[in-house]
Amino acid sequence: MTAPQARDHIEMVNRILAESQQRLCAGGEYFVVWGIGSALVTIVFQLADRSLVPSAALWSVPVVLAVCAIFSILRGRSTRAALARSSLLQREFFNVLWLTLGLAFVVDVAVSRIFAGVASAAIWSVAQAIVLLYIGMHGNRRAQVAGILVVVSLIAANFAPPAIAGYILAAGMLGGYAGFGVSELLAHDGDVA
Amino acid sequence: MDEMLLSKVRLGVIAALLNFDWIAFSELARSLGVSNGNLGAHLSKLVDAGYVDEEKSFVNRRPLTRYRLTKRGREAFADHVSQLQSLLRAAT
Q1: How do residues B11-60 score in pLDDT, each as one tens digit?
Q2: Searching chain A, which residue's CA lies closest to the CA of residue B5?
Q3: Which residues does chain B have within 8 Å of residue A88's beta carbon, measured at their own beta carbons?
Q4: What is the pTM of this model?
Q5: ipTM for this model
Q6: Domain regions of chain B by residue span
Q7: CB pairs under 8 A, 24+ apart, for A4-11?
Q8: In this complex, is the C-beta atom of B65 within 8 Å of any C-beta atom belonging to chain A?
């Protein structure tokens, strides 16, 4: 094999590896929106729990969640055509994403007597960590770091005073989940249909 | 160098499988931009060499053939790319 052939092969390998990194991409905007939304909800609950805001502020929670859900539905419709052409792996990822977050949502709503207060926020953090680490398992280093960040926030919140546990979880959601979304958008600018 | 990976298509297949557990045949063909017949022949050689695992199944009554990299294939790829890089360094 000659040097030009070797260079050609190396360049092809690098291109394929770069493309395969991009292939398992959920669209960073979902992560940004849900990361910020979940952090806002967590902070509102924490503030209300400490009586730092009037209880009426809790009405902002369904509004925030509705905005996130509406965004996801509208964005999902606009990317449906692209998703239909995506790989089995990509579709499997979306199944994992929605199953995990959907289950977390159901648990938060339907099992609120068991997972009350900061525990409901922790459920969201666990769900977000699963999604991020699943992406990380397929070679996305940023997702691995983000997932670990969310897990670290969970552990830190566990040992923190109750007065600030919610803020720590919210920081994990912002830095890990929303932060991963921002990094995806920056890395694959214009890549997601 | 590994003769099995001197083929650009076979090297591309290994690179495409590197970051994933399983990839469907159709996805590999689209990713590499090669015809089904050409890809099938190269995949058979990789399977025979023990570099790639093949799984045939049915999804919604449609046949699905998918592939994943074996440990042997991963090691061979790493060695081969390392030798390609050495060749490039020696040439420059």
Answers
A1: 999 998 887 777 889 888 888 889 999 999 999 999 999 999 999 988 77
A2: A9
A3: 22, 24, 27, 64, 66
A4: 0.61
A5: 0.87
A6: 3-91
A7: A6/B84, A6/B85, A6/B87, A6/B88, A6/B91, A7/B88, A8/B8, A9/B8, A9/B11, A9/B84, A10/B81, A10/B84, A10/B85, A10/B88
A8: no
More confident residue, A91 or B29: B29
B73 touches chain A (CB under 8 A): no
Q: How far apart are CA A159 and CA A147, in angstroms?
A: 19
Q: Which residues of B touch A8 (CB under 8 A)?
A: 8
What CATH code would you report for B3-91? Answer: 1.10.10.10
Q: What is the pLDDT of residue A190?
A: 42
Query: Quick check: B88 and A12 CB within 8 A?
Result: no
- Would you call B2 an interface residue with chain A, using a CB distance cutoff of 8 Å? no
Per-domain residue ranges of chain A: 27-187
